[in-house]
């Protein structure tokens, strides 16, 4: 594998390059991809970025500077106690770069950057379609709760 670099970048500077990877992630990992096409809420990402709540950690190929992976987190105060937390809302590495423990290296970079700004807890999500719970467990994450989802039929449509 070619050498890679880790960085923290602003979504405003990155979105045109980030969207194709986010789309690939959606299509690979989301059970809704066939019924709900990828359509990111750019305004929400921009709003979170403006209030300095969004963190985008990137993985780039050193030789080409091409974006090959990312981790996106929303940083906030926990609503029930005085602790800063980060909730991961996206973690993806292109299939061509999924080797050599690159996921654990991206996680370590993200955790180091978040800890440096006072974040105490990080939540990670993983889907059954692209499960990386074994990686998370190996680097110290533990199962906290399970999430269930039910799609509702809109009333009046």
Provide an overview of this structure.
The structure is a single chain. The protein is globular. Strand 4, helix 3 and strand 5 form a beta-alpha-beta unit. 18% of the residues are buried. The protein has a five-stranded mixed β-sheet with strand order 1-2-3-4-5, sandwiched between helices. The chain has 157 residues and is an alpha+beta fold. The protein has one domain: Aminopeptidase, CATH 3.40.630.
Describe the structure concisely.
This protein is of the alpha+beta class and 157 residues long. It has 4 helices and 5 strands.
Q: What is the third-level CATH name, the topology?
A: Aminopeptidase
Number of strands: 5
CATH class: Alpha Beta
H/E element sequence: EHHEEEHEH
Overall form:
globular
What is the mean predicted local confidence, pLDDT? 92
| Helix coverage percent | 25-40%
Query: Could you tell me the radius of gyration in angstroms?
Result: 16 Å
Outline the biggest β-sheet. Answer: 5 strands, mixed
What count of helical segments does DSSP give? 4
CATH architecture type: 3-Layer(aba) Sandwich
Low-confidence stretches: none
Distance between the termini: 50 Å
Number of domains: 1
CATH homologous superfamily placement: Gcn5-related N-acetyltransferase (GNAT)
